[in-house]
Amino acid sequence: MKQTHTPLSAIALIVLSCLCFTAVDVTVKVLAQRYPVPLIVWARWSVQTLIIVALLAPRMGVGMFRTARLPMQLVRGVVLIGSSICYFAALSLLPLAEVTALNYTSPIIVTLMAAAFLREHLTRPRWAFIAAGFVGMLLIVRPGSDMLTPAAVFAVGAAFLYATFQILTRKLAGEDLMVLLVYPSMVGTAVLSALTPFFFPDNAWHPVVDTAAFLSIGTVGFIGHFLFIRAFRSAAVDARRLDRIRHLPRRLDARRHHRHRRQRGGIDRLRALAGERGPIRAGGGGLVSLVEFD
Asked: What tens digit of pLDDT does each residue of 262-288 get?
């Protein structure tokens, strides 16, 4: 039977993570009015990479790159970078509320993908949440309105890629938390550092406010991803604990049965040695009563 319980600690961490990402979205929306999207995405992941290296390198060294599932880590990093590019592009072309509404499809996609790839059971409440989220998205998007422009493809693509990223994160829940933070940042910095010079404006000017904004999207984004990964790890740990608790009575029954069989075997041997004589038989009966009572 698959685990469907979600701990409150994981929910709280997800909520805090979403608040961090919302702050990043607002900042990106402002920056996108003056700077190209690839530059903003590069700043987002480069700043996070600097933070991670500064925090982890003295303590972990090369250990922060140690993973047993390198291909999946690299794919996860590329998927997240693709999601960031699509989402930031959507923010630069569409109103923030509309991009957020289209991004509501991400939890729906995650739930369906979890059932398909993680074999998670879809309960009736989960189906109800999926339906409610889809209806809410339709109420905001209003099919047939001017909102469904070609730019909306970026928002939908970002939702799909981010859902894929979440599934990969769940499959890598056994990996070190810091390693899970390192690889997307490193992959994003490496890929975008090669592309950014082609998009860097010649007349770029970074006043103090914009510099602080560029630094903040990397810093707050780092905190958001840290909380996000902790949420998945918390859910995985809670699932294992709950599984142990669920099977505890069964294990105790097995131990009690094994102990009872050993005790009854000892009594039978005593009876055999005594030859079933009266006084010993009575004593044996008393011993059986005491053992069974215990």
From this structure: 555 555 554 444 444 444 333 443 333
Residue 283, both tokens: 């004593």
* Integer Cα distance of 3 and 242 in angstroms: 9
Structure tokens at 256: 């009690």
- List b or e across 87-99, with b for residues whose CB sees 16 or more CB atoms inside 10 angstroms: bbbbbbbbeeebb
Residue for token pair 């009872």: 260
CA distances from 277 to 207, 264, 289 (A): 103, 18, 18
What is the sign of the dihedral through the CA atoms of 283, 287, 292 and 294?
Answer: positive
Q: Residue 99's closest CA among 67, 136, 65, 141?
A: 141
This prediction has a pTM of 0.69
Cβ(271)–Cβ(284) under 8 Å? Answer: yes
Q: Where are the domains of the chain?
A: 8-246, 248-293
Tokens of 180: 């899970």
Average pLDDT on 65-71 reads 91
Amino acid at 220: V
The C-alpha torsion from 204 through 208 and 209 to 211, rounded to 10°, is 60
